[in-house]
Specification:
Radius of gyration: 16 Å
Distance between the termini: 34 Å
Largest sheet: 5 strands, parallel
Order of helices and strands: EHEHEEHEHEHHEH
Number of strands: 7
Strand content: 15-25%
């Protein structure tokens, strides 16, 4: 729990896999707070083309990603500097385990989040169990899928709130069939 008043609070929307509704739940909460007058902005979001998720972005203030050139191509990454400059009360940062493109200030998005928290800005973010460093090997052994992006366990220890977002296996399989889960 955050006992330091000079640091932002971290809330993690935590799920067992992609497609359980972490981003959706985070955006629902953000919409409710924004309607109550809370200074919440979207810093980085990945809707993966899900219409229902994209609709929840409607009306929310957004700091759009910046373009970074790498090997002759342009990539979009969270604009950390603009977030710090705008200094909102809460920023939404999807996909905590994301690896930033070379040329970004930090190698990993979780490092960006630590800097935002140090600026006394609250962060709402999303994370799947397979991305926790100490759980990576277990998940790989169970699923046979190699996990390339991880977050140190320390990040979970620093979280002020962890909200479990989950659905039944049957619902998840249905969502897969409907194309609502990225592979």
């Amino acid at each position: 729990m955050n006992i330091h008043k000079d640091r932002g609070r971290l809330k993690i929307f935590f799920g067992m896999s992609a497609g359980v509704g972490k981003t959706y739940t985070m955006l629902e909460e953000a919409q409710a707070m924004w309607k109550e007058g809370v200074d919440v902005v979207v810093g980085a979001i990945s809707t993966h083309g899900r219409k229902e998720t994209e609709e929840l972005l409607s009306g929310l203030p957004r700091i759009f990603e910046k373009k970074i050139e790498y090997k002759g191509r342009f990539f979009e990454e969270m604009d950390l500097e603009s977030i710090l400059e705008e200094n909102p009360q809460i920023v939404l940062v999807d996909e905590l385990a994301h690896t930033n493109v070379p040329g970004s200030k930090h190698l990993k998005r979780w490092q960006d989040v630590l800097e935002i928290l140090d600026a006394n800005i609250d962060v709402y973010t999303t994370l799947n169990v397979q991305h926790i460093e100490s759980r990576k090997d277990i998940v790989e052994n169970l699923t046979g899928i190699i996990v390339k992006e991880t977050v140190p366990d320390l990040i979970l220890e620093q979280a002020d709130f962890i909200e479990l977002v989950d659905i039944s296996p049957k619902e998840l399989l249905q969502r897969l069939q409907e194309g609502k889960v990225y592979l």
